[in-house]
């Protein structure tokens, strides 16, 4: 299941339900079992995008790990790294197929943006986020700003179950505390009523950590030329 991931710069808490992410912060991973995310994953995402934009055959199978993890791919553009697409999945996918799919999906099918064009390619940056260490929160405050990503499940005014997520960097980028982040996530998930303490207490929270790696198009081209030598 595809999902949008996070929040735009200084997003107002009562703004649009479709809240984009810009993926500009580096994270403290707090890893226990070694690092999975690697720049090669970003280079592969650029390979996928380049081949699609130029109507070439898909890139060859990459050499990095093909273990299965939830993942997100984020495209940004320009020196200010404005968001151009960010989509991922909480279903564990084998990394080769998952990054191939979401590199393209986030570039061309994020409904908040027009598809990325060939002319934009030299100004792009890509980030890969590998999600790990999922834990059920005891309550809506059982997570740490800047350390955990969070996913909430709740029922809207009509009694329908809804979900929403923010990657770990979002609350820090926005300058939000825990309650502001939770309230923004409720809005993102479609809750339109008054957010009361009871609403917050009744939601289900899952916290997780993210390994994130980012490269620019210039990094990608340097890597490509080095491979040709």
From TrEMBL:
<dbReference type="InterPro" id="IPR036071">
    <property type="entry name" value="AMMECR1_dom_sf"/>
</dbReference>
<feature type="domain" description="AMMECR1">
    <location>
        <begin position="30"/>
        <end position="224"/>
    </location>
</feature>
<dbReference type="Pfam" id="PF01871">
    <property type="entry name" value="AMMECR1"/>
</dbReference>
<protein>
    <submittedName>
        <fullName>AMME syndrome candidate gene 1 protein homolog</fullName>
    </submittedName>
</protein>
<dbReference type="InterPro" id="IPR023473">
    <property type="entry name" value="AMMECR1"/>
</dbReference>
<dbReference type="InterPro" id="IPR002733">
    <property type="entry name" value="AMMECR1_domain"/>
</dbReference>
<dbReference type="InterPro" id="IPR027485">
    <property type="entry name" value="AMMECR1_N"/>
</dbReference>
């Amino acid at each position: 299941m595809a999902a949008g991931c996070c929040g735009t710069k200084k997003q107002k808490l009562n703004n649009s339900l479709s809240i984009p992410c810009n993926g500009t912060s580096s994270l403290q991973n707090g890893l226990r079992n070694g690092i999975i995310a690697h720049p090669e994953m970003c280079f592969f995402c650029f390979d996928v995008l380049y081949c699609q934009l130029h109507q070439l055959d898909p890139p060859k199978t990459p050499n990095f790990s093909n273990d299965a993890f939830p993942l997100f791919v984020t495209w940004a553009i320009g020196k200010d790294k404005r968001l151009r697409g960010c989509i991922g999945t909480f279903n564990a996918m084998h990394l080769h197929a998952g990054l191939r799919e979401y590199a393209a999906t986030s570039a061309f099918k994020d409904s908040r943006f027009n598809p990325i064009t060939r002319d934009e390619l030299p100004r792009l940056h890509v980030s890969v986020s590998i999600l790990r260490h999922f834990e059920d929160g005891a309550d809506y405050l059982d997570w740490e700003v800047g350390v955990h990503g969070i996913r909430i499940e709740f029922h809207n005014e009509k009694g329908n179950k809804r979900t929403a997520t923010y990657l770990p960097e979002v609350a820090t980028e926005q300058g939000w505390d825990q309650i502001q982040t939770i309230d923004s996530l409720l809005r993102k998930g479609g809750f339109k009523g008054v957010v009361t303490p009871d609403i917050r207490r009744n939601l289900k929270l899952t916290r997780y950590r993210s390994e994130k790696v980012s490269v620019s198009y210039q990094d990608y081209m340097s890597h490509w030329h080095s491979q040709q030598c």
